Amino acid sequence: MKERRVERVIEKMKEQGYGQLLVSDPATIFYLTGRWIHPGERLLVLVITPENKNTLVINKLFPIEEDLGVEKVFIDDTDDAVKKVLDYVNTDEKIGVDKNWPAHFLLRLLELVPDAKLGNGSEVTDAVRAIKDEEEKQLLRDAQADNEIAVDRLKKLLPQELTEAEMADKLAEIYKELGNSGFSFDPIVGYGANAADPHHETDDSKVKPGDSVILDIGGIKNSYASDLTRTFFYKEVSDKGREVYEIVKEANQRAIDLVKPGVKFSDIDAAARDYITEKGYGEYFTHRLGHFIGIECHEAGDVSGANDNVAEVGNVFSIEPGIYIPGEVGVRIEDLVIVTEDGCENLNHYPKDLEIIG
């Protein structure tokens, strides 16, 4: 077990009055044990107690011989899996259950313990995971450094006039060459009008002169995610495209400049959004400013007008304003930042000046 991480979880669960946590999320189990386990439809639960007497209940289909610093209990497919978990649970105390625990397991728990006092245990583990330790910060730096190499290589393929889907295929090859284990999310390659769809799904479109080109990409390196967006123009740029680009670039920087401990996420969002609105494009900025990132590309926590929580040292999140004018042009610029004692560290060094390719 990652002892300091487990200790932080226990501190937080005590604060919230839990007698135990039932952790089923594979990413959180990896975070706490250093071991990935993907159970499919089978039960997987790490029981954490305030006394730090913890138990991993796992199917025999997944033999784990190494010492994970936790008692391992192996179950059969024919076992009543939830009943086995309850052997290690004090049902008189509040039970924290993962937000993504399959409903059939939760319903079985309620059959066995009708009066169970339940809560969303992910609020505990998500809060702990939101504060990255030094090991995690370095892993995220390394992952994002690879991502900058990837976006540069991908950008240089534009003169070949590959389709969006072909560009995504090339990106998979680039990540493999860089030692990444795959995508952290399905890459977004958007040409021209497609770039004006914030979550466009790559298709067989080909790039045309004057198109804005959004490359929103991320890989996985040593189990940590990267995420980066840059927008380029192919062969030429219109006056409107140039104007929109410069506004988004300034909005990105204004938000980054505001990041420091104690600042509300809603205020960080407003720093970018209010500027875009002031310039007359507010209706075309259609999503939150950013999301937290770590083992998963989108982790709990966001940078939005609805989040009045404050930034803490060790938070890592994206700053990604955009303007999307249907049928005309789309621009998004995304960086990742780590909150530091007196501001933030931008994990991105890739240029943000407007660039015309080809």
Automatic annotation (TrEMBL):
SUPFAM superfamilies: Creatinase/aminopeptidase, Creatinase/prolidase N-terminal domain. Pfam families: Creatinase_N (PF01321), Peptidase_M24 (PF00557). Residues 5-131 form the Creatinase N-terminal domain. CDD domains: APP-like. Residues 139-341 form the Peptidase M24 domain. It comes from the Bacteria. PANTHER family: AMINOPEPTIDASE, AMINOPEPTIDASE YPDF. This is Xaa-Pro dipeptidase. It comes from Enterococcus pallens ATCC BAA-351.
